[in-house]
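Q: Is it fine to ask for two folds in a single conversation?
A: Yes, each is treated on its own. Send the first.
Q: Here.
A: Result:
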Amino acid sequence: MANGMDLQPAAVKELLDQIVARTVADTGAHAGAFFLLEPGGEVLVLDASLGMPTGFVGLLRRLRVAAAADGPLAEAILQRHLVWVASGEEFARRYPPLALTFPFVGAVAATPIVAGSHVWGAMLLLFSQKSPAPDARARGRFTTAARCIAVLLQDAAEAGHCLQPDLTVRLLPPTPAHPSAPAHPQAAADFIAALPEGACRLDVRGRITFADHTAAGLLGESVPHLLGARVWEAVPWLAPAPYRLRYQAALASQLPTSYTVKQPRTGRELLLQLYPDRTGVSLRISAPAGAPDSRDELALGTGAAPGLADLDTHYHIMQLSGGLAAAASVDEVVKLVAGHLLVALNAHAFSLLVAEAGRARVVGHHGVSPELVDLVDHAPLASDLSLPGLTTSAPSWGRLAQGMPSFFADRDELRAAFPESASIDDGMGAWAWLPLMASGQYVGVCVVGYRQPRSFTLQERATLAAISALISQALDRARQYDAKHQLAEGLQASLLPRTLLAMHGLEAAARYLPASHGMEVGGDFYDLFRLSDTEAAAVIGDVQGHGVSAAGLMGEVRTAVRAYAVASATSGEVMARTNHLFNDLDPGLLASCLYAHIDPVHHIARLATAGHCPPLLRHPDLHTDILAAPPGLLLGVDPRAEYPTTAIPLPPGALLALYTDGLIETPGTDFETALTDLAAVLSRATGSLDDIADTLLAHAQPSGDRADDTAVLLLKVC
């Protein structure tokens, strides 16, 4: 290709632009774009655009290439193949976050620009939602164009003129929609002047290329003032985002739309009707006596596409999307859907169901009668059986299980598909059944109900599909989280005593709280067990870290302490033997531990500690001491470490408090201050031992937020 060809950057760009324009025209696309890949291969930069709305150009200026789920361009680059998306619904299912930003997209084609092993960039085509999917001929022209661009860029680079990406996007003039039509300027002008409506023509950037005097008069401006300016600049009261979004939506979707506005100077209602094609938008302006034309495919009112009616709707969709990305439990997902879905979709009822062991379980609903929920909850699933929701009969289970949504514009449509629903009146007039798929697997269904019959437009269906995909992913993550959380809680509970020892002369209370963040099982533990008819042993400890390893090690330490204690060893010997075993296990972790031999008959306790927090002793007069028992080394440091035994008096009414560091570790507070404060709280605490334990926890975590696990064991001599 380089033979006899000027490969200077300007000439290369001119030839690139010609290829892009010809490809858009030959494939039947209404818009196209060419992207260059930045060095490093992580960001695509928009280099040239044809037929793209101004808003799209800004959003597409720089795109990351991190995962195939980021969009068709990223998928084409990463997987080095042509990506075809047949419809807006498929686009929404495959790229849900992107579909919420671009809810007007129909069919999409993306291909990498590859020469040898080098990826130069990518090319994108957009097709109207009302156009059929591109045929094999169109696909062939697209891939041929991509190969030509790749060879052109490779030749230019070898000639020393490598094309570099920058942020100056070339906006290419679109090919006229009817290039062969004869021009009759005066006849056309006479025809337009005879109409009672005003007429304007806007290009793809929103600039007014034509306006008649009727349109100018209705808008309250002069024709010279309008020509050449963007409509929202020439007519400031048309600048609010919802109006500009209408223009962007019409141009991007290639579907006509209409809306009414009030002329602020005259107070007159105007009907604006937009008819797009690949070169821009024809705008018809009139002062209607009635409502907007019901034939509009993208109209406001009950048929409005989600996210287009107003900024409040768009806000709720974005809130729902962001919240679902952070949701950590099924309850959180349900609350988010209840709080934002109905508002975002202008709907009136929803039911969220998951598939469990061959049955459907209702995990959340709003606006659905309790009778219907009871009827469908835990109903068996079969290929020809309905799923729970707003009726007892649902769309084909096979269709839903394949990820295909079903829409019913009115009760007649539902009855025609499912005669069994005739006897059910749920107060709804239209339904959207949205399958919830995650990793190719069916996880449930979201049913959305509307009180009034409605037609679901292409754009509306795409937006619903995108939202259902976001709900699917969030619900799947949340169910996994809940399952792991239940497993962790069960494991933690199995490693702690189910009940506390009850013996004459000794009263006990305990608390265990996991950290607020994360769901792994912790390493804190406590135990209280009988040594004889009149003696007991208490132990509390904290194994370093979290997770199954820490929990398993905690269980072994607890078992070892019990075994050595019942063998009539002293407190120091129990700690020394446990430490020796701990080192033999070589876990790569450390642990703190405190062991107390309690003799309530003789009113004495013998303590040994392996680097654990000092216990608190509240005397009968409510004065509290911080016990300074000689600390030994943490378990796991030295297998030959020794642990001295310290005897302390336990008069009747005395209270011994054992705890882990989660009770005193407070950001911004040093250890000594936190310990002194805890002792003061214990001195003032009143009520039963359970009340006192709750008081200590409330003092340590007044907001309920816990950075670490916390265990408390209180012992009172009666």
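Q: Second one now.
A: Result:
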Amino acid sequence: MITDLVTAAAEAAPGPATTGPAGATQVESAAGLVQSVDWLAVAPPLVVAVLALAVLVADLFLAERHKPLLGYATVAGLVVALAFLVPLLGGHRSTFCVDATAPGAGRACSYTADGFALVIQALVLAGALLTALLSLDDTRKLPAGEFWFLLLSSASGAALLPASRDLITLVVALEVASLPAFALVGIKRGDRRSSEAALKFFLSSVTATAVMLLGVSFVYAATGTTHLTELAEALDDVPARFTTLAATGVALTLVGFAFKTAAAPFHFWVPDTYVGAPLPIAAYLSVVGKAVGFSGLILVTVLAFPAYADVWGPALAVLAALTMTVGNVAALRQDPARSRSAVRLLAWSSVGQAGYLLVPVAAGAYTDDLQAGSTVAYALMYAVVNLGAFAVAALVARTSPGNRLTDYRGLHARSPLTALALAFFLLCLAGLPPGIIGLFAKVTVFRSAVDAGLGWLAVVMAANVVIALAYYLKWTALLFRGAEAAPSPAEAAPAASPVAAEGRTAAAPAPLVAALVLTTAAALVLSGAPQIVLRFAGGMLF
């Protein structure tokens, strides 16, 4: 019917352009702009976006005593969004497509729900769901409507990004995921640390985005297209006068994603942001923020810029080595008695883990085999255990707001199951048994570097794994160490914390316990059958 209307309008328009072959071409071109949308393919991010608007509107009419319902609606909506991934499994659905500019190239699409997109969307939505569970109790002290709206808005952009297949959609999705995150970091009104963290996060992110947009404009100027599949072909045959412009554009485009992955030297915002943000938001940034950055990085390198592997391959290898070294050395130097030292250590640990995640992406430039599956497998492991560690931190923070590492001393005596869970998460991050999934993921990443001929990077990674053992094992040992008989004056303040005074942790809310149980169960299952992750991640590539 719409096509008939387009045809009728074209025939009714005056002038010779509407008659003959030229007129037919115009009608075909206009009709080609009218296309059906595959609503099932776009359902996961769309459900989250619609839910965000519904929560914002509902907040205007709900009485204050009913505001907790918004949190439960958020949890239910994220579960529904995850359920919409099930009918998409095993398929390859695309929408928002146009005819490719290259002859015989078929159609170029802006949104594709393939295996890669579905895995990252599952990671993002599950991460947002666990963040929501961690936040249900915290939002009593925060503006609930704004909090849930911002969280859902950010999650919708993060879910859109892995399915984006042109640079414009990619940048829009990246900013939709990032802009609400700035407000979430600074949502604790009247908290100077939170405001400073949000400002630092905002300024550094905006600078990185501006650089990335400059790179995208250079790439478009050199190729005349923004679709990733077309870029791969166009960059293979760039006119000589545009070679430098294209190479510069590729390098600048990667800067924005390097910032999102917290790769050194673009990592400086991470510690202060994690410490200043509400604890669930720090967990969200450490997992979902990294998923956004690495999925975008994989898309542009593997799909769009393979012709310039000689540019981004060495750069990412150096970034990987620098990032893991800076993160692990800084984590090793944390003062256990410093306020928020536990969160700060997790922040630096996430920087070090980002270095490991970069290794397979860099290795992909030196081999014909796609190494992105190793990155995704490691990201899945990291997401589960890091969210679990933050869940324990949120539990301890209920009675020890300072969240110092010293507050975890003797946790096994106060809460044996919580101490065992945190010890297991830390051993997974360290790559030691019984955390088999962590060991399995690190071996996979190490092998990708060796197979690509990056022996020097494998050596740097091995050295960093040893460095990381020191602070992971030190924290683990602290959990099972008894209280000192005569604490020194310097330790008196931590000992007088509510945890030490009560001798036990306060009763935790059910959503927080549910988040901890889910992450623990997932980590145990993956440690029992680690091959599931690699097989799943390897089978989902483009």
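Q: Anything structural to flag on that second result?
A: Two points. Residues 1-32, 485-505 have pLDDT under 50 and may be disordered. Residues 192-223 form the longest helix (32 residues).
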